[in-house]
Protein: Fe2OG dioxygenase domain-containing protein
Organism: Malus domestica
Amino acid sequence: MASLSQLPAGSGSSNSLLSVIETAKEPLTSVPQCYVRLQQEPTPSELSDDNKGTFRSIPTIDMTKLVKGETSDFANQLEKLHSACKDLGIFQLVNHGVNPMLLENLEHEIEVFFKLPLEEKMKYAIRSGDVEGYGNIAKTKDQKLDWGDRNTLESYFMELDQLAMRLLGFMVKALKTDMREIEELFDTDGMQSVRMTYYPPCPQPELVVGLSPHSDVCGITILNQLNGVDGLQIKKDGAWMPVNFQKDAFVVNVGDIFEMLSNGVYKSIEHRAMVNSEKERVSVAMFFSPKFEAEIGPLRSLITPENPPLFQGVGMEKYVNDFFSRLRLDGKSYLEQMKI
Ligand SMILES: O=C(O)CCC(=O)C(=O)O
Ligand SMILES: [Fe+2]
């Protein structure tokens, strides 16, 4: 795994992580001890039939049906979006409207970047006190990135930002509340960050984890599995379930902050990434969060005497900083602390 933006410091910052690509270049037949996980939770194939549950695949939401507006298709799709966010916290988004040429260029440029020699990549390494670079990129909407091909990356960020705002709009509609509070939190100065991850093939994939179990500390995440290789898994009823999705679809998941904003109606989902022995995998996750100055907590418009707040309010900056000061990714434990 290389590159991270939403990881607490000790989850493998800088050198050990950045060098996994270099490690994987060696003709290895076994995995170095530092990557071996001794205790893995069961995968579906290891569970008894009684415990497999009913999960088959994540729901598919069709953006064109949402954008079309007030038709019966729209109402059905909005209901589907509501159930997906409430019951699972994740769905695949098809017909999202992002320019296919842009997606192709992005895939090409990111692959080229990850394949540069380490010395070249380290020229872009994140420096202490900075938030962007190899290893980590985070930006507010008005900050510029200065590595990679600015045109492609910036266009991607802009298109995804618009998509995220539209999706947030539909989610708010599905929650039957109004958009004003969300606009205040996310619009203009909202925070956008990205994690691009290159997972090299691994000689013993069953012994390692590409990205440790976690939920995302953001409003929503839009994940692009760039080269179409699967590896994402979600935790459902105590077991890890693989998520397969169409090559051109994005996976959207509810983050911890939206769980708080929705007062627990929508759920963030615990997930992880696994690797395989043959194919490298490249993913780009974009995280959309409220602005740093915002106070986050259950939306006022959702709170009534019958529906009291389930989470404490907290400043966004404090929330994010406290998360980054934790030593490792640990499922949904950080969000649990915020419960009243
Ligand atoms: O690579 C993936 O499929 C998952 C990435 C992810 O969960 C993240 O970057 O937060
Ligand atoms: Fe994630």
Notes: Residues 1-18, 144-149 have pLDDT under 50 and may be disordered. Residues 8 and 324 are 4 Å apart (CA to CA). The longest helix spans residues 150-174.
